[in-house]
Amino acid sequence: MELKKNPKADVGKNSSLYFVIGLTAVLGLVYGAMEWKKYDNSNDYDISMNVEDQLDEEVPMTEQIKTPPPPPPPAAPEVIEVVEDEEEVEETVIESTETSQEEEVMEVEEVEVEEVDEDISVPFAVIEDVPVFPGCEGSSNKKACFQEMMQKHIRKNFRYPEIAQEMGVQGRVNVIFVIQKDGSIGNIRMRGPDKNLEKEALRIINKLPKMTPGKQRGRAVKVPFSIPITFKLQ
Prior knowledge:
Layout: H1 15-34, H2 51-55, H3 142-157, H4 162-167, E1 171-179, E2 185-191, H5 195-206, E3 215-216, E4 219-220, E5 223-231
Antiparallel strand pairs: 1-2, 1-5, 3-4
Family: Belongs to the TonB family.
Subcellular location: Cell inner membrane
Protein name: TonB C-terminal domain-containing protein
């Protein structure tokens, strides 16, 4: 015998509807609990108090600031009487400074102009009369003789510094000096790889003899001259 299920006894019938109704009821309760407000009963203040009542009180007025009175108007200027100029004014006559042909012209003595001793330097390569090294007075080519005598002077007085030899220092020292208008040597400048080599080159140039100064247009001038001194270890 088969058991038949009564459709009225179905437990799951309309379950979704009941679920929605229950969910709605729960949400309503939660919302009402969140929006619930409670106020404390307090009689500490007077409800009848009004702000407008305070504004009716009289406010004492501050004293007025006393400003200084304005300065009095300036006095009216005195009436200036106009007096006619009765005095005669002499006219100023400007005499001409131009001389006429009838006037004698005074002769002016010639004024001697002193020559200014200009400090001129002329390079050795372009000077008209080169400085004369002692011993080159009779040479036909004094410029070549000057350079040859300079090389002889360097070889004769050359001495390699001991400290430079120990340190193994060698190189070329460029020397520039000026033959002054009296034939002496001055304004010596050097540039080299080591101070000891520069010091030795200075000693050699200081031993140069006094020379006959160079001339440009017949006048003695300063003549700069440059020469290299090579220091080389054997």
